[in-house]
């Protein structure tokens, strides 16, 4: 049984507040992953949800400078659900651990991360300004952030498109909005009118929520006809408009996700998208892989919902997805800059 245990001790220091992940060096990070089995081994069990799973066994990094004087110990294991648990004894207890099952919890940063430039990563992001309580002042702040970080686009509420277009005029940041958001249950005529108004106000990317109820009813021809009408009439007004069809995968079976992929492609969309970010759950790596496998190469995949860390973004990109919708854009890009020493 191969184990990894890192013990660094100082009675004068206390444990830091632990977040979703902890950098041990410039190239290695400790990932805290969800686990359905709760155990206690002379310490405190921490379980943090919605993180990408990793695998692999590595030796201890040569540099652990951030923790050189810190009381620190960890053991992870993989249970039958293939999810990891990290155990951190509090500093007041002796740094002694018994491991129940074998597995490392120290993983390298993805190869993709080392190959990405800042510009490439920034252009993955649609910065979301979609919360119902967000004000006109929040739109100003969000658009300034989008310009500062040079992201691909902002995604604002339909009522804020004109303001965002004015704020972003002359920049490389595109203006996007959402249609029939977040439930997709408006009649087709309303979706068409909303799309045309958004284009008139300055939107160039439209994220349209599919009619979830009709999709789940098996009315695939009806759903496809609606999307085709929205896309055709919108592109007649501006052929450069990009359509992303939001599925809201939290409510769909795998078979329904596959059907939505086929429907969206036939209707003429450029993207398929996982989620609104307002359902009971957001993107998953499994859903992204499924979507990527069920559209043609020229159709892109966008992840949304619960994207808050750089490691999540890297895991998303590793599935073949090319765009991420997030309201945590600045934190993620700052994390990337820090990891690169920028």
Automatic annotation (TrEMBL):
Gene3D superfamilies hit by this protein: Aldolase class I (3.20.20.70)
Organism name: Umbelopsis ramanniana AG
GO molecular function: deoxyribose-phosphate aldolase activity
Keyword Chloroplast: no
GO biological process: carbohydrate catabolic process; deoxyribonucleotide catabolic process
Enzyme class: lyase
Cellular component aspect of the GO annotation: cytoplasm
Family listed: Belongs to the DeoC/FbaB aldolase family. DeoC type 1 subfamily.
Phylogenetic classification of the source organism: Eukaryota, Fungi, Fungi incertae sedis, Mucoromycota, Mucoromycotina
CDD domains found in the cross-reference section: DeoC (cd00959)
Record SUPFAM superfamilies: Aldolase
InterPro entries xref list: Aldolase_TIM, DeoC, DeoC/FbaB/LacD_aldolase, DeoC_typeI
Entry's EC annotation: 4.1.2.4
Catalytic activity of the protein: 2-deoxy-D-ribose 5-phosphate = D-glyceraldehyde 3-phosphate + acetaldehyde
Protein name as annotated: deoxyribose-phosphate aldolase
């Amino acid at each position: 049984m191969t184990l990894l245990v890192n013990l660094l001790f100082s009675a004068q220091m206390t444990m830091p507040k632990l977040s979703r992940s902890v950098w041990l060096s410039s190239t290695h990070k400790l990932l805290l992953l969800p686990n359905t089995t709760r155990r206690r081994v002379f310490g405190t069990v921490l379980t943090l949800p919605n993180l990408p799973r990793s695998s692999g066994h590595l030796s201890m990094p040569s540099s652990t400078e951030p923790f050189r004087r810190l009381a620190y110990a960890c053991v992870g294991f993989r249970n039958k659900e293939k999810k990891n648990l990290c155990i951190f004894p509090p500093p007041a207890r002796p740094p002694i651990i018994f491991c129940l099952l074998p597995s490392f919890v120290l993983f390298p940063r993805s190869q993709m991360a080392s190959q990405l430039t800042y510009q490439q990563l920034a252009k993955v992001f649609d910065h979301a300004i979609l919360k119902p309580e967000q004000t006109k002042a929040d739109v100003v702040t969000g658009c300034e952030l989008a310009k500062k970080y040079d992201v691909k686009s902002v995604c604002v509420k339909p009522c804020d498109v004109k303001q965002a277009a004015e704020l972003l005029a002359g920049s490389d940041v595109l203006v996007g909005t959402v249609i029939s958001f977040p439930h997709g249950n408006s009649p087709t005529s309303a979706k068409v009118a909303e799309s045309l108004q958004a284009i008139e106000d300055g939107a160039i990317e439209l994220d349209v929520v599919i009619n979830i109820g009709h999709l789940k009813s098996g009315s695939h021809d009806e759903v496809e006809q609606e999307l085709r009408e929205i896309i055709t009439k919108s592109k007649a007004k501006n052929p450069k408009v990009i359509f992303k069809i939001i599925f809201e995968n939290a409510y769909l079976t795998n078979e329904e996700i596959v059907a939505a992929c086929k429907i969206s492609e036939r209707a003429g969309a450029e993207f398929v998208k996982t989620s609104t970010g307002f359902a009971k759950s957001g993107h998953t790596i499994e859903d992204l892989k499924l979507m990527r496998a069920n559209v043609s190469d020229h159709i892109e995949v966008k992840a949304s919902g619960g994207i808050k860390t750089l490691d999540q973004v890297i895991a998303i990109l590793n599935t073949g997805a090319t765009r991420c919708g997030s309201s945590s854009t600045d934190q993620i890009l700052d994390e990337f800059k820090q990891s690169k020493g920028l």
